[in-house]
Inverse folding.
């Protein structure tokens, strides 16, 4: 069974609504119906037109998250992915609509249309004027059904805001309905799922996808899409979706548009931002005027990984209503954007602190060895990631791979002497690796390079001195010591072995291999150590049994140097 933070699957909707209302001083909950409404509404004869929406639960923050001044007056919640009952909708209308009436914003699903529609009929027999606005923005069905049978999906949130803004501005029932219907007609949305969602209490998701498959053109109830295909890049998916929307909604050059990038519940903000980036670029490439953009999880499908894109044609009225203030907590705020990406030039100056002398006698050997080390680290990325995932935060492999790429991009002149190679490599790693590995390696390499500043061909003892200085620099910067289960458990024994072998007049290769052997032994021993510093320390004894990834990485690159001597 999929793990959920719930109590009883039968009570999830009511408990969810109680949590929403308990976390606000502006909302109230009907006692006998799952309806969230604005608290402290005026007396009925003083109320503006009420804007009511809703549907099945599982779409949070919709719909209760959009209840607030300037947006929805009330939201009606059905069971998960199930339309609310006619009586629940009628309760909402009675609770918040006055003589000015109510607009019901309904997503185009059969159950929603039936229950909201019947509730509207019953309310009108009681003397409450009601208009229904149906949103059918899912363009993925353009080859499958007529427009009036398309589903209503995430773009509905924009209609909530437009209708709510119009009501707050004091417009009449007929005016609000007309504004909202016309906006819905100029709105297109389409989604993509990378996997299925799992309903509360269910033991498996609604469908399964292979690792390289996606569902394109899906609704918001955990169902399959219109097409199953191989996954593409974020850019490719954005282009595919927007091409369909633009063609279907007849959006052309010069049109002003709003863009909504909506997460389906299981998608990170990072991924949504990447989709936003290219969606804006695609619209601008086709000479459309992107005036408003919102990104986030605005209407979800429980925990489904994926997203949808919505594009709405704008005019002055729609733009103003979208911009108007609202107290609805889930509305993401201003969607204003700059006409183009703003980039600021880096401040002048450099902290590289290096000049490049003429090529020394070891230039080619140092360059070949450095590049071999970089390639080895790239090849070992999966192994290092696995180690760091088991006993850390999982970023070591990717961090060192970025560092390796930076080493491979160093200019030929950087390898001129041992000092330039060490300092240039340190600076490259400092820039490429933002985590702890970057500063540690940078500090170590730069100090070692400065120690060898005037030495064109260091003797084994001089290399050993530089290596010890580098290891001590890491200890000083990080505050760790041998036995704390860090990279120092490989570096410090290696430095000691290197110095001892060099003092015995061993050849450079022999002395370095002794250091490599000590590093490997030290790295292996970390598997039995309880971590004292670093991310692994948060795991305590749970990290025991897995060697420290940083120490293993040291042993790997040291041995690669030995193999190239």
């Amino acid at each position: 069974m999929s793990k959920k933070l719930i109590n009883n699957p039968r009570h999830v909707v009511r408990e969810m609504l109680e949590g929403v209302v308990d976390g606000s001083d502006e909302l109230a909950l009907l006692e006998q119906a799952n309806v969230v409404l604005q608290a402290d509404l005026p007396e009925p004869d003083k109320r503006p037109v009420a804007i009511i929406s809703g549907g099945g639960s599982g779409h949070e923050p919709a719909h209760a998250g959009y209840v607030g001044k300037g947006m929805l007056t009330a939201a009606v919640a059905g069971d998960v992915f199930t339309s609310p009952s006619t009586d629940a909708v009628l309760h909402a209308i009675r609770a918040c609509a006055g003589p000015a009436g109510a607009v019901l914003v309904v997503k185009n699903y059969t159950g929603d249309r039936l229950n909201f529609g019947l509730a509207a009929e019953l309310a009108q027999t009681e003397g409450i004027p009601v208009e229904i606005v149906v949103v059918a923005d899912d363009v993925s069905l353009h080859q499958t059904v007529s427009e009036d049978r398309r589903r209503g999906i995430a773009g509905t949130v924009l209609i909530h805001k437009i209708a709510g803004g119009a009501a707050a501005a004091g417009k009449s029932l007929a005016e609000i309905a007309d504004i909202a219907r016309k906006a819905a007609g100029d709105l297109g949305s389409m989604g993509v799922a990378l996997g299925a969602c799992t309903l509360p209490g269910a033991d498996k998701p609604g469908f399964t996808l292979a690792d390289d498959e996606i569902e394109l053109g899906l609704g918001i109830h955990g169902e399959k899409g219109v097409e199953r295909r191989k996954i593409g890049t974020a850019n490719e998916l954005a282009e595919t979706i927007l091409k369909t929307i633009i063609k279907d909604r007849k959006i052309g050059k010069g049109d002003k548009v709003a863009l909504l990038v909506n997460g389906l519940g299981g998608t990170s903000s990072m991924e949504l931002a990447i989709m936003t980036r290219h969606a804006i670029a695609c619209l601008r490439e086709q000479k459309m005027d992107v005036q408003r953009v919102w990104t986030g999880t605005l209407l979800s499908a429980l925990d489904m990984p994926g997203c949808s894109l919505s594009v709405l044609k704008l005019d002055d009225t729609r733009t103003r209503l979208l911009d108007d203030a609202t107290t609805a907590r889930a509305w993401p705020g201003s969607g204003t954007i700059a006409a183009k990406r703003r980039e600021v030039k880096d401040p002048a100056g450099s902290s590289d602190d290096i000049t490049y002398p003429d090529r020394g006698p070891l230039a080619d050997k140092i360059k070949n060895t450095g590049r071999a080390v970089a390639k080895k680290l790239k090849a070992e990325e999966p192994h290092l990631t696995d180690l760091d995932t088991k006993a850390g935060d999982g970023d070591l492999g990717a961090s060192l791979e970025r560092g390796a790429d930076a080493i491979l991009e160093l200019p030929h002149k950087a390898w001129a002497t041992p000092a330039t190679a060490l300092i240039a490599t340190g600076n490259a790693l400092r820039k490429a690796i933002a985590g702890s590995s970057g500063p540690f390696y940078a500090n170590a390499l730069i100090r070692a390079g400065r120690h060898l500043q005037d030495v064109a061909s260091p003797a084994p003892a001089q290399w050993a001195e530089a290596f010890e200085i580098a290891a001590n620099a890491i200890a000083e910067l990080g505050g760790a010591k041998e036995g704390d289960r860090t990279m120092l458990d490989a570096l410090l024994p290696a430095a000691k072995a290197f110095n001892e072998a060099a003092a015995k007049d061993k050849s450079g290769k022999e002395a370095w291999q002794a250091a490599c052997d000590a590093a490997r032994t030290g790295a292996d021993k970390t598997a039995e150590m309880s971590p004292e510093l670093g991310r692994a320390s948060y795991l305590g004894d749970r990290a025991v049994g897995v060697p420290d990834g940083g120490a293993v990485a040291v042993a790997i690159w040291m041995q690669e140097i030995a193999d190239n001597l």
Remarks:
- The two ends are 55 Å apart (CA to CA).
- The domain at 9-197+212-323 is CATH 3.40.50.10440 (Rossmann fold).
- The chain has a mean pLDDT of 93.
- The first helix runs from residue 12 to 22.
